[in-house]
Amino acid sequence: MARFDGKVALVTGAAGGIGRAIAHALARDGAAIGIVDLPGADPGRAAGELRTHGLRAEGVAGDVADPGSIGAAAARVAERLGPVDILINNAGVARIGTILDIAPKDWRDSFAVNVDGTFNACRAVMPAMVERRAGCVVNLASWLGKRGQAHYGAYAASKFAVVGLTQSLAYEMAPLGIRVNAVAPGLIVDTRMRSDIDELSGRMGLPQVKDRAPLLPMKRVGYPDEVARVVAFLCSDEASYVTGATWDITGGSWMS
Known about the structure:
- The chain is α/β, with parallel strands linked by helices.
- About 45% of the residues lie in helices and about 15% in strands.
- The chain has a seven-stranded parallel β-sheet, with helices on both faces.
- It is globular.
């Protein structure tokens, strides 16, 4: 029997990158998958990839930054697949710029998606978990949610907030049988976000992936599947005594 047989997982920002890898990992282990992403990301296509392998999946357009949009998307997933047992808050954006130079819109967007988006998705999905007194949530933070860095102040501040939200939710939900954890990826490639950051870093004269990877203790980058496997573990009964944790997936660049 697969670990997630009979379970329904909702994964935000799952049309590509880390979210897609998480959706595939959970689906391979038996979960039905609700993929929620912006219309332009084509969540229907991403869900179709899973269905071609005989897996249950639905793609729903939704914007985590808009409470009404993510609320409607979550309701549609539950209607089509059943009550959501696992929520993965993966949707995120990264904006680069010094604190004094970053555009106010880039600052606001960082919090609207990374923090408000996590908050909105939790508020849309978790009340039904509370009613059933069961469920699991994993939030995507970052190693920059544990240590700030020049030119990444908006991103770091938003991811620090995700870690704080994760810990607070874990305290509130533990008596109700719901576990809430986070993961903190480091230098993960093969994602749209990483490609965009690398391109912008090059234009700004900042270190790129090729410069940073040799400096890591493991001397290499990470890949979406490596994040997905940790997320799947945290969603499983193997992690039944784990809540409020933020797991580093950084190749040793951050150890806590």
